[in-house]
Design goal:
0% strand; flat; mainly alpha; single chain; 2 domains
């Protein structure tokens, strides 16, 4: 893959840029072991996960959230 120049990215449509960001994020998420979290970040994630487990009705699956953000639901 070639290096993307800022001007090339800015020439993409908004939807194309959003897709690019999603693709980049997916590539990062595919290697979670490479992401180092601070103790504070770990504690916050655990707090949120505990809250979710305490009341499963309050949470939403990612695909539902993503569609809500995109305005499709």
């Amino acid at each position: 893959m070639g290096k993307l120049a800022e001007k090339d990215i800015l020439n993409l449509s908004i939807s194309e840029r959003i897709q690019l960001v999603e693709d980049i994020w997916d590539s990062i998420a595919s290697a979670p072991e490479a992401i180092q979290l601070s103790e504070e970040q770990k504690e916050e994630l655990n707090r949120r996960l505990d809250g979710y487990h305490a009341d499963l009705a309050k949470g939403s699956p990612w695909d539902v959230v993503r569609e809500r953000i995109r305005g499709k639901r």
